[in-house]
Amino acid sequence: MGESKPDWEIIQLVANAMGANWNYTHPSQIMDEASVLTPLFAGVSYERLEGWKSQVWPVEPDGKGTPLLYQDEFHFPDGKAKLFPVDWTPPQTYEQKYDLHINNGRLLEHFHEGNMTYQSAAITHKVPNAWLEVSPELAAERGIKDGATVRLTSPEGAVKLRVLITDRVKGNELYLPMNTSSSNQAINFLTSSEHDLVTDTPNYKETAVAMEVLSYDGESPLPKSNHRIDTQRNPQIGVRVQDKWNRPDFVPVEEVIRREED
């Protein structure tokens, strides 16, 4: 933005200030080095990607893609996968007042917390803010409608959100997208430090919350341009997948796999 430098130049300047003596003049040189150091990217290069071209990795040195990561064997000396048993650990327990289970995940429109996608006016136009998905049965029980404002509280913290009533969730199940432009709506305010002993993944799927109704009605959190409003397909202006589909050289992954099998 503005007169800022691209990331690779910034990183190189920092590295050289620490004595690295890097001399890259174009990001293609970095990609070439990565392809030498990482066998899975052996055939990836700027030349093969320019012009909206794509490659499916792992990529052979000659540029041939491999639709499946492990077609014949795994990357171990004997070619076999390594499996090991794990013990079941009970989920985190909560006081009875935390009577709702909150799930979380992604949205079609945004990526991660939205640090980049919320900079796209076309995407932000369709999803300007996060919302809380509430089931029709829970909404009827609590007397709330689309656009109601609620505060969710867990032992760790609280968030405030507007409600979207949908049958995509059932009963006492809530859904909060992880993609948000507002820090006070983040799921991380509700989760604890509990984590999986093997993967270190936080307990995103075990969190329980209490709901306080701040207003029982309000403006829907979804703009009228959002595809969830009706059943019609609406092209996503910010993600021009149609341009890729219409390219003469575009081949669906299913067709790639079929050709490999033939």
Describe the structure.
The protein has a six-stranded mixed sheet with strand order 2-4-3-6-1-5. The mean pLDDT is 88. It has helices at residues 7-17, 27-37, 46-49, 121-126, 136-142, 241-245, 253-261; strands at 100-105, 132-134, 149-153, 158-165, 173-177, 208-215. A hairpin with a 4-residue loop joins strand 3 and strand 4. Helices cover 20% and strands 13% of the residues.
- Structural class determined from secondary elements: alpha/beta
Contiguous uncertain segments of 5+ residues: none
Arrangement of strands in the largest sheet: 2-4-3-6-1-5
| Radius of gyration, whole Å | 24 Å
What's the overall geometry? globular
Please indicate the percent range of residues in DSSP E strands (runs of 2 or more): 5-15%
**Largest beta-sheet details:** 6 strands, mixed
Mean pLDDT: 88
How are the elements arranged and paired?
Elements: H1 7-17, H2 27-37, H3 46-49, E1 100-105, H4 121-126, E2 132-134, H5 136-142, E3 149-153, E4 158-165, E5 173-177, E6 208-215, H6 241-245, H7 253-261
Parallel strand pairs: 1-5, 2-4
Antiparallel strand pairs: 1-6, 3-4, 3-6
